[in-house]
Amino acid sequence: xxxxxxxxxxxxxxxxxxxxxxxxxxxxxxxxxxxxxxxxxxxxxxxxxxxxxxxxxxxxxxxxxxxxxxxxxxxxxx
Length: 78
Known about the structure:
elongated; mainly alpha; 2 helices; single chain; 78 residues
């Protein structure tokens, strides 16, 4: 998976203050990789066709993970 500025924007646009971190904190969007089991549908320029539907799906999954993690986190002191 390749996280460029557009992918990060797709994730951040879905993680609004209403969903996570109402205090207005930011989100750092990054990807890890696996040489053995890496998905090949979202690649940097010049490495093949990018499947835009897959990128949108991956961004929704990432945003959902952030939202659920925030909602299930222990209470924070204010």
